[in-house]
Amino acid sequence: MTAERMNGKELAATKHAEMKVRVSELAKSGIVPGLAVILVGDDQASQTYVRSKQKMCEKVGIHSILKHLPADTTEEVLLSHIDELNNDPEIDGILVQLPLPKQISEQAVIEAISPEKDVDGFHPINIGKMMTGEKTFLPCTPHGIIELLKASEVQIAGSHAVVVGRSNIVGKPVGQLLLNEHATVTYCHSRTVDLRAITTQADILVVAVGIAKLIKKEDIKPGAVIIDVGMNRDENGKLCGDVDFDDVEDIASHITPVPGGVGPMTITMLLENTIESALNRS
Ligand SMILES: Nc1nc2c(c(=O)[nH]1)N[C@@H](CN(C=O)c1ccc(C(=O)N[C@@H](CCC(=O)O)C(=O)O)cc1)CN2
Q1: Which of 41, 93, 144, 259 could form a disulfide with 35 if both were Cys (CB 3.0 to 4.6 A apart)?
Q2: What is 140-263's CATH number?
Q3: Can you give the pLDDT at residue 281?
Q4: Active-site annotation holder among 92, 118, 120, 203
Q5: Binding residues for NADP(+), per the UniProt record (predicted)?
Q6: How many CB atoms are located within 10 Å of the residue 268 CB?
Q7: pTM to 2 decimals?
Q8: Which CATH architecture does the domain made up of 30-114 adopt?
Q9: Ligand 1 centre from 266 Cα, in Å?
């Protein structure tokens, strides 16, 4: 058996076409969705992601602006930019690209963004609503994972989903979204004593730890659905995930490749949140 590849690039392209139509419908009522992206510093990967976000916005007709601030920007200055954008009626979504330089508290920045414009879905109010199952902006990577699972017709309800990783932007929220879809969820992390004993029980295994090719065939149950959120470089400098794709491909039933799996869905869900936010304009 060779696993079915869950193609995030393809699903993203389908969703982009749908969003383009929604945006042109909105334009008839004089609304152009607006996204503000704030990038602090010159991290190469962050610059690439920000460029992709802007390119995708342009593709679907979302107006985007970029505030590129120097690496030594103070928290106070960054917060003043956020305040200005919170009060800008043309801006429906605000995103501060993470990670931030050490002198700035990520939590303070996340909490300064108006929850109504928090298209990353990281604000504590939106996280709280996600936990209680209220309609809100959902964190983009976790939401993209759920969309990929649904598009591949993977049975989530009643499954045992194991999440390896407990970050605020992926691990914790993806577990919550899987729980909201009626999975039984187990979290594993760096202090988990016997990781393999747990990952081998997973019907759906989500791995988001940032360790190249950590998960091998011995770590998974035959027929499991594997979601790889990792973005690492292997010994030859080639992009790879947290799962050893070649090793598990013949054992899993479905698998997300890296690149082209979860990654493209992150930006897609960000655009969807921005359009939703524009629809809420009063
Ligand atoms: N404010 C935020 N910061 C960060 C987020 C986020 O959701 N909000 N997530 C990540 C980075 N990220 C988006 O910002 C992101 C990561 C990866 C991809 C992606 O499409 N990856 C491609 C491969 C890209 C490559 O070749 O290097 C793929 O997997 O196919 C998109 C967005 C951290 N920061």
Answers
A1: 93
A2: 3.40.50.720
A3: 87
A4: 120
A5: 165-167
A6: 25
A7: 0.98
A8: 3-Layer(aba) Sandwich (3.40)
A9: 6
